[in-house]
Design goal:
By secondary structure, the protein is α/β, with parallel strands linked by helices. The protein has a domain of about 200 residues: NAD(P)-binding Rossmann-like Domain (Rossmann fold), CATH 3.40.50.720. The strands form five sheets. Strands 3-2-1-4-5-7-12 form a seven-stranded parallel beta sheet, sandwiched between helices. The longest helix has 22 residues. The radius of gyration is 19 Å and the shape is globular. The structure holds NADP nicotinamide-adenine-dinucleotide phosphate (NAP). The site of NADP nicotinamide-adenine-dinucleotide phosphate has 28 residues, from helix 1, helix 4, strand 5 and strand 8.
Length: about 300
């Protein structure tokens, strides 16, 4: 692979993909949010514009990375969500098939209903909310219609640092930076963190081996929001200063009104059986993430 087209590359995961692949491949990175000088504007919902841009670059592989990722926004805007997270993926499939190149799609652990504690690559999806339904529709379309594809499923994403991280770590870090000494964290949500840098590297290994198909791809070790928050506070040396209060999801029902499964824990069974699982334990990944991306971020002595 020497030429890679990365669509929707301006977010948390796109940053890691750019860093992973820019050194030894020609990359073209696009997004609707042009927040870097290495990004160009492209709305992948516009099939003609998407096709024209990818064909002009003539890549060896198409990475369709982007999506709407705010679950509450998706719940409130179903048409926009299906157009972005499902139908734009159909665009990517048509384009990759026309060029006869492989397609990478990013799936989500959120497609399960949470009745099981742990899900491997062969468990059946049953998406609960609009975001999850649209992402699952995208995944199914890729699996049924792509000639060559990788679907890599991520869990609770960690990456991008203060500027790009929109998820749990950043939400906790912002509260700490604002001087909070008491955090309310849910104790009824189970999942698996996913470090964007390890994820991008693991994708590279699959591409090199050309082992197409579906792979769960999360950090080692199933956990919970509460445990991640505790590990984060410990890692920052704030155990004596910051109290963590366990609350149920009902506490945040107004803010986080989109349905979420009680468990979205993934197991990388296929990657492990292939001998190709390089995803590190989540505590190790969290520690590295905080050191590399959040050093000096907190206004604390
Ligand atoms: N974040 C997670 O916890 C998580 C978990 C599992 C799977 N995933 C999947 O991982 C992938 C990457 O997500 P991420 O975590 O990097 O989220 P992100 O930081 O929100 O990045 C997604 C990027 O896609 C862009 N985008 C949205 N609509 C677009 C369009 N029509 N055309 C082009 N670009 C568009 C977004 O722009 P705007 O910011 O302007 O919307 C954003 O820059 C997504 O497919 C997501 O579903 C994420």
């Amino acid at each position: 692979m020497t030429r890679l087209y990365m669509a929707g590359c301006g977010g948390m995961l796109g940053q890691a993909f750019f860093e992973e692949f820019r050194g030894d491949t020609d990359v073209r990175c696009t997004d609707i949010d042009v927040n870097e000088d290495w990004l160009e504007y492209l709305d992948f919902r516009d099939f003609d514009a998407y096709r024209k841009d990818v064909l002009a670059f003539s890549p060896d592989c198409l990475f369709h990375l982007g999506a709407l990722t705010d679950l509450e926004y998706c719940e409130a805007h179903p048409d926009e969500t299906y157009a972005t997270n499902a139908m734009a993926v159909e665009n990517a499939v048509y384009i990759a098939n026309e060029l006869d190149i492989p397609l990478l799609y990013i799936g989500t652990a959120g497609i399960f209903d949470g009745r099981q504690e742990l899900y491997d690559d062969w468990d059946a999806a049953n998406p609960l909310g609009t975001y999850a339904r649209a992402k699952w529709a995208g995944e199914e379309f890729v699996a049924k219609n792509s000639t060559k594809y990788l679907i890599c499923r991520a869990g609770w994403m960690m990456g991008g640092g203060p500027r790009k991280d929109k998820k749990f770590v950043q939400k906790i870090m912002r509260q700490l930076r604002d001087g909070s000494v008491s955090l309310n964290v849910v104790d009824d949500k189970l999942g698996t963190p996913t470090y964007t840098r390890d994820f991008a590297h693991n994708v590279r290994l699959l591409l090199e081996r050309r082992w197409w198909g579906l792979y769960n791809m999360v950090c080692q070790g199933a956990t919970s929001r509460l445990e991640v928050a505790r590990a984060l506070v410990t890692e920052l040396g704030l155990d004596e200063v910051v109290a963590i209060n366990a609350v149920s999801s009902d506490y945040f029902a107004d803010t986080y009104f989109a349905p979420r499964p009680p468990s979205e824990r993934l197991l990388n069974r296929k990657l492990a059986l292939r001998g190709l699982d390089v995803m590190r334990p989540w505590r190790e990944a969290l520690s590295e993430y905080l050191r590399t991306d959040y050093s000096g971020y907190l206004n604390r002595p």
